[in-house]
Amino acid sequence: MIEIKNLTKMYNGFRAVNDMSLSLQPGDAFGFIGPNGAGKTTTIKILATLLEPTEGDAFICGYSVRNNSRKIREVMGYMPDFFGIYDQVKTWEYLNFFASAYKVPGHRRKAVITDVLELTDLYNKRNDYVDNLSRGMKQRLCLARVLIHDPQVLLLDEPASGLDPRARIEMRALLKELRTMGKTVFVSSHILTELSDFVNKIGIIEAGQLLAFGEVDMILKQLTVTRIFKINILNAYDRAKELLEKVSHINRVEVKENIIQFEFRGTDEELAELIKTLVIEGIKVVGLQEQKADLESVFMKITQGVVS
Length: 308
Ligand SMILES: Nc1ncnc2c1ncn2[C@@H]1O[C@H](COP(=O)(O)OP(=O)(O)OP(=O)(O)O)[C@@H](O)[C@H]1O
Ligand SMILES: [Mg+2]
Hints:
Alpha-Beta Plaits, binds adenosine-5'-triphosphate
């Protein structure tokens, strides 16, 4: 659906994107994550055929950004990080304008506009002036506009930036819905947790370099050498702590009420052995949980702050 091949973008000798390659399948939701100045917007603008690559190429639905921008614009919707304000235009008129620009046939326009207004929860605002909408509504309107020609691929550059917590959650729900509609979504953000529950693939970019790319679970697994576990027990906390501290691949044993937390570097077999030992020693184990590594800490681990 999206294929980036050895893509490089130079701005007057400055390498903003460096030899990037990745590929996404239909239905993938891809989180493109990186700090300020990493090269996210530059990459997305190249995919949206608004910037030319210096070297390499990128393909959307098999069309090259180098020589098939017209076709790409038919199958792709691009939501920029900043978009212009339109004075004296109503929500409805704004969408109608884009519907005609995208050549949605006249007789279908009304239904299409109603659909995207409902999807983005703006139907009640259809007769409001665009510049009177709140920031979150404008953001959703921009997404409504991007959906008007029913593109298969969506390129969204920080769609949730500047939104309050509620609006962020609503935006996330909307993105999830787009994914369930079968669209391939390429979304950038520097807030990792924002994407973690809806993307299946992530790429981490810093200083123009793609540092990691793949399935979310795979990347998390690769990077979490140390796992953190919590064991719930009913008795003998000090004894349990003592036992755990003797194990060579365990560190930082802490007791909090009836929970013992520790860092673990062993295998699953060794973990099973460990629980067996506790039980044999008469400790009443009622639960074991692994604390999932969050994307935030993975991000900090991969990016060493090259930019700053
Ligand atoms: N038109 C331009 N001319 C020169 N340099 C540019 C231009 N646009 C971007 N850059 C530089 O390219 C690098 C990547 O910028 P880009 O906007 O792609 O980053 P980004 O990852 O989108 O950052 P942010 O999270 O702040 O939006 C930055 O160092 C930026 O200064
Ligand atoms: Mg950007």
